[in-house]
Every structure is written in C-alpha cells, then in structure tokens.
C-alpha cells in the first residue's frame, strides 16, 4: 500500500511539473504580447474562480471540498509566483482576519504586507508598492464598513474580487483540558466576541488581553498552562491542540474586497459594484432603480453615504448580479449615464466568491 501511495505521489509530482511548464508558456506568451509587470493580467481572478467552480462541480469526495480548495489555492499561488510574485497589502496586523482573507485568496507564495489603516492600504496599491489590496467592506452582524466605501470616491482603483471569511474562534493550548488552563490570552476583539462562552465554561480562569496574536504566541512559549483564544483558521500557525471550537457568541462573516487596477473578464457568475449620485428631487431614486428592474437585474445591496462634498448630498453604492460585459448590465449602465443629473462610476465587475 505504501509503495502504491509513493507511485501516486510520483504521478502527482509529474503532473504538477507539467502544469508548471504550461504556466511558464502562458507567461512567455504574455511577455511576447507586451503584457509585463505591473500589468494586472498576471492575476486573473475570473480564471481562478472558474477553476475552483469546475473542480467543485466534479468533486465526489471523500476529501472535503474545503481541503480541495486549499490544495488548489496553493498550486495556483505557487504557479503564479513563477510569472510574478505578487505583493498584497492587507489591513494588519498579522494573523488578523484580513491576513487570513489575503491567504485565502492569494495563497502563501505571494508577499503579504500589513498596513495600519484603510487609507494606507489604498495608498500602497495606488503608488504601486503593492499589486493588490485586501480591504474589509462588510460585517454580517454590523453592516457596511463605511471608510472603505468612502475611499473609493477619490481612488482610481477598482474591485477585482471578493473574499468571505468566517469569524470563528477556538481555544488553543497544550495543557489537555480547559480545567488545566492557568492563563487565558486573547486580543480584545477575540475576548469580546467569545465573552459568553468564556463566562460559562472557564469562569475561574485568569484572563489577559494582548495587543496581537504575535504577543499571545510569545507568552505561550515563555509560560506554562497558557491557552489562547484565536481564530480557528490559525490552527496550523499556532500548532496547539484545540480544546474547544466555535466558541464565538454569534455566527459572523466578514466580506473583503480585492482592490487593484484593471477589469476581470466574465467568469460566468459575476457581480458588479457601482456608485452614483443624483439631483435631490422626488422620485429620482425610484427612476434610477427602475432602470435595473425593467431588465430584471437583481440588486443585491444598496447603501447610501454622505458625499463629503456638500451638506446633505449623498452617494449611493450598489451591488448587482451580472458583469458589465452582459448586455442587460451594459444597457442599464448606458441608460443610467444618459439620465440628466446622475453621476455614476463602475467600481468593478468581478467573480462572485468561488470558495
């Protein structure tokens, strides 16, 4: 049986090398055609989305689908790095949910750069110090993250993709049981989101709030009997036993946007985001939304924000199903642009999350 597994590994390795050769051929063709860095064609989110969707559709197990996606994420990431090693900025610190989102989308073969603010994140991409950025835009419990939306007003960047990360926590430790824990560590956010579970299951454990996961890891290495409240996705990084999982008080998910330059082509399942403003008069918003309704375009989200230019002027942010290359969406945007008093901008057409 072991010899058979070794033979399968050899075949997998041969196929991986064959795949890499094809990737290098594609990279050569791009260079011949003049598509060189920092051209965003090196990263094609619609192509990656189609790969993941196709593999999931043909997958029959017993390997979990999530594991299949992780394997191919790393294969794609390593392959892409042979063409160009991408630099991806994210809202730090390391091991925060934005870091996990960047890893989920780009894999571990890219260079991940933490930033201290959303403004810095956008700036790093705008001045080409990063190829892409990963910015939080929505929390399933708390709604839209307004600063990310506001930043699009004056930025030339567009949306290249979206990532969803489950906000799920666990207690990690090497002590064997929650009763043996002498000190419970976690960031302020982690301890807050898991307060109910901690009060019910570990009421007597001393607690300490740390500034970062890096500090929690340092303390755990230096002291005995320490447990850490951390995202479940960090299991491999922490290297500790999981004493309890899914300890968050409420199910939660964070949506992130991949920001960059360029426009992905159609993947087959796409979303378009835009922002617009219009004259303040009765019924005007109804007229705008009617443009999409008569074409049976599904609007998945609409959000309003003060424009910041003058008092009581508002910007509207809208997500809809479909790609700008789809005739109904293209027709709607053309009609919207021709409406007097309307100023509209496409923020991006990009694949609906594939994993």
Automatic annotation (TrEMBL):
Q: Which domain of life is it from?
A: Bacteria
> What catalytic activity does the UniProt entry give for this protein?
chorismate = prephenate; prephenate + H(+) = 3-phenylpyruvate + CO2 + H2O
Q: Name one Pfam family in it.
A: CM_2
- InterPro entries the UniProt entry points to: ACT-like_dom_sf, ACT_dom, Chor_mutase/pphenate_deHydtase, Chorismate_II_sf, CM_dom_sf, CM_II_prokaryot, G/b/e-P-prot_chorismate_mutase, Preph_deHydtase
Is Chaperone given among the entry's keywords? no
Task: Please give the pathway this protein is involved in.
Answer: Amino-acid biosynthesis; L-phenylalanine biosynthesis; phenylpyruvate from prephenate: step 1/1; Metabolic intermediate biosynthesis; prephenate biosynthesis; prephenate from chorismate: step 1/1
Cited Gene3D superfamilies: 3.30.70.260, Chorismate mutase, Periplasmic binding protein-like II
E.C. number(s) listed in UniProt:
4.2.1.51, 5.4.99.5
Please list the residue ranges annotated as the Prephenate dehydratase domain.
87-261
Keyword annotations of the record: Amino-acid biosynthesis, Aromatic amino acid biosynthesis, Cytoplasm, Isomerase, Lyase, Multifunctional enzyme, Phenylalanine biosynthesis
UniProt domain ACT: residue ranges:
273-351
In which compartments does the protein localize? Cytoplasm
Q: State whether keyword Hydrolase applies.
A: no
**Mostly located where?**
cytoplasm
Domain named Chorismate mutase: residues? 1-87
Function recorded in the entry: Catalyzes the Claisen rearrangement of chorismate to prephenate and the decarboxylation/dehydration of prephenate to phenylpyruvate.
Q: What is the name of this protein? A: Bifunctional chorismate mutase/prephenate dehydratase
Provenance organism: Candidatus Magnetaquiglobus chichijimensis
């Amino acid at each position: 049986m072991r010899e058979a597994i070794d033979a399968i590994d050899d075949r997998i390795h041969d196929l991986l090398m064959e795949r890499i050769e094809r990737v290098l051929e594609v990279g050569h063709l791009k260079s011949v055609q003049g598509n060189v860095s920092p051209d965003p064609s090196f990263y094609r989110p619609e192509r990656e989305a189609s790969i993941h969707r196709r593999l999931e559709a043909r997958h029959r197990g017993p390997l979990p689908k999530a594991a299949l996606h992780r394997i191919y994420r790393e294969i794609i990431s390593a392959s892409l790095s042979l063409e160009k090693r991408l630099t991806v900025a994210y809202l730090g610190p390391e091991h925060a949910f934005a870091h996990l989102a960047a890893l989920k989308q780009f894999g571990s073969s890219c260079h991940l750069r933490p930033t201290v603010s959303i403004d810095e994140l956008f700036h790093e991409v705008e001045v080409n110090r990063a190829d892409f950025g990963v910015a939080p835009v929505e929390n399933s419990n708390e709604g839209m993250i307004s600063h990310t939306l506001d930043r699009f007003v004056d930025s030339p960047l567009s949306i290249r993709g979206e990532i969803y990360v489950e906000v799920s926590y666990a207690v990690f430790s090497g002590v064997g049981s929650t009763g043996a824990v002498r000190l419970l560590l976690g960031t302020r956010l982690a301890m807050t989101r898991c307060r109910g579970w901690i009060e019910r299951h570990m009421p007597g454990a001393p607690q300490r709030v740390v500034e970062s996961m890096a500090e929690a890891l340092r303390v755990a290495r230096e002291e005995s009997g320490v447990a850490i409240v951390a995202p479940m996705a960090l299991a491999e990084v922490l290297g500790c036993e999981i004493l309890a999982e899914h300890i968050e008080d409420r199910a939660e998910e964070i949506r992130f946007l991949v920001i960059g330059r360029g426009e992905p082509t159609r993947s087959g399942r796409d979303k378009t985001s835009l922002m617009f403003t219009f004259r303040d008069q009765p019924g005007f918003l109804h007229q705008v939304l009617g443009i999409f309704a008569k074409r049976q375009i599904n609007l998945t989200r609409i959000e309003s924000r003060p424009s910041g230019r003058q008092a009581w002027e508002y910007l509207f942010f809208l997500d809809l199903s479909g790609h700008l290359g789809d005739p109904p969406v293209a027709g709607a945007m053309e009609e919207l642009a021709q409406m007097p008093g309307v100023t509209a901008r496409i923020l991006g057409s990009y694949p609906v999350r594939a994993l």
